[in-house]
Amino acid sequence: MGFRELFVKKSSIYTETSVELTLIASGESEVSTGWHFQLVYCLFTIVALQIAYTTNHMAKKRVTSVEQLQATVVSLETDVSSLKSQLSASEQRSRLNNVEIKGVPLKKDENLFSIVEVICKATNYSFPKTQINYLHRVPLHGSKEKAIVVSFINRYVKEEFVASARACKTLSAAALGFTGTSQRVFVNDHLNAESKNLLNKTKSAAKEKNFNYVWVKYGKIHVRKNETSPAFIVYRESDLNKFA
């Protein structure tokens, strides 16, 4: 017999028991004294069942409410994650015409246009100054160094500038005329924080799985195991499972 059926059965004698107890109290009952205690016990049992049933019903409602809240939280977390991804992708698209130059020492009263011109000479690539939309220094996370961000008018000019700089393996601060330092100068796509983090994880996974090529083009992370294998793009961290 289930809890609900037991409750209904016990409740069906509740009225009779209550009437009998009233008669007992007035001395008009014909029931023996031994039965008095059983009637009282029965009444208390019914009350206990009523309390238990109510508590159980409320507990079930609370469990249902908690489960609904948990489902809502999961749904909201999914929405937030999706919005973050969309925001990051939108931010990265806004940087498609930008390059980030690292390794150029900071100098007082420096002329960033002149520095870019020197890089062009060192890499044998030139373009009109009018192709530059703006350029400025930006701090690097966890470093005292400041990178140079150059925003180009034409994306294809930007891509050619990056390609020529990457092809120049001798590009260094010394090659740009700075003395007392031999640090390399790197010209890359201007990635946002999320993309940089993903790039670092991709490089680690590639090293672990013996993938030889990881590069960024048009703001997207490309991976290839060797010269003859097909390349694929890493859009999110779950794509790292593609390494095999």
Automatic annotation (TrEMBL):
Domain of life: Eukaryota
Keyword Coiled coil attributed: yes
Ranges for domain FP protein C-terminal: 194-243
Coiled coil: 66-93
The entry's keywords: Coiled coil
Pfam families (alphabetical): Baculo_FP_2nd
Descriptive protein name: Zinc finger DNA binding protein
Protein source organism: Operophtera brumata (Winter moth)
